[in-house]
Amino acid sequence: MRFQSLEEWLSWQEGLHPSEIDLGLERVRMVLQSLGHEQLNCPVISVAGTNGKGSSVAMLEAIYLAAGYRVGAYTSPHLLSYNERVRLNGEPVVDQLLCDAFEHIDQSRADTSLTYFEFGTLAAIEIFAQADLDVVIMEVGLGGRLDATNVLDADVALITPIDLDHADWLGNDREVIGREKAGIMRAGRPAVCGDTNPPASLQQVASELGAQLYQSGRDFTFLDQAGQWRWRCGERVRDALPEPALRGAFQKANAAAVLMVAELLAERLPLSQSHIREGLANVTVPGRFQVLPGDVPLILDVAHNPQAARALAANLSAWPMPGKVYAVTAMMEDKEIGEILSVMANVVDRWSLTSVDLPRAATAEQLLGILNKTVPGAEHELCASVDAALGTLETKIQPNDRVVVFGSFYTVAEVMQGDYNAGLSSSHNKG
Global pTM? Predict the structure, then answer.
């Protein structure tokens, strides 16, 4: 074996390919053919979109696990451990499985160069192929059409709400982005769109392929019912559904699309009402409006584009408290920082601007320059790190205040690696 530890494999993969991102399927497909896993022996659900992908994967996973199915799920990026990316029956895989998969890929690729993400995607497929699963759920990393996950043909494609993100790679127009996301559709196979106002390009691609597209608000709907909700597609109705355990009113829209996917696979993977209820009631996704309770609630959200920021702001507005909202934020410099800050300015009273130790990260000074242009006069402070920002806030916050940490997966991960599991204590309670 080339390496003995997962850390060694991952470090080597980071420098194997000339660029971090190299969209295209030719190299990945060649290696996949060498591995012999062009198709898996179970239904595959591919999930693309700008926001809601992780939540949708988690709901599908939770529902199928509640029904007793053997489930594989692939997501990215991870928060604390690389193993989070590849799950078998709801649990991250152990290091040895990943190392064995990496070794097999390394032997099969010959002189084909692979990116870090491509290596990981192939490893997930290798692990799933050996695991005797009933269903595999693949979260697209970037776009869809040219993303490494698209080497598998989806039995059902799910496309969550679409907004502007990764403009350098996908374009700065929803129609162009929509066509990239639609690339996970397959001829003669169904696709589901959870966006009630999708770009027209989604339907155009579906029509060109001969894929039947089920669109939220047109082909399936959901309706609130006094603490519960109803899902309908034609004559098929599911009543008295529980609120998804994930926070945010928009999660019912994600759940409605998930139920449409489940309905399309119902002949191969039957589900009872109790399975769906149990899955929705118990689903969890770290870092999505995750509240760490304490004297002062600490809210973690990986929101890193305008659409996700709007959802975060809506969640904060729907949970009113008499105190102040303090925001700790660090973002990547290629994001729509001005629009994100503008959206969040409606709910944030004071900003702690910082950075994370990555080449792509914006500096705290860069964030301040954009904040001054976008929200003139905003109260703020510059901090050396996320941890330093939280340490400073503990001397300022009072009961009924809230602290929200957002801006990227890396920003949230810094909190999760720290000693904040019990939330924050206010200066009022430190005597």
Answer: 0.90
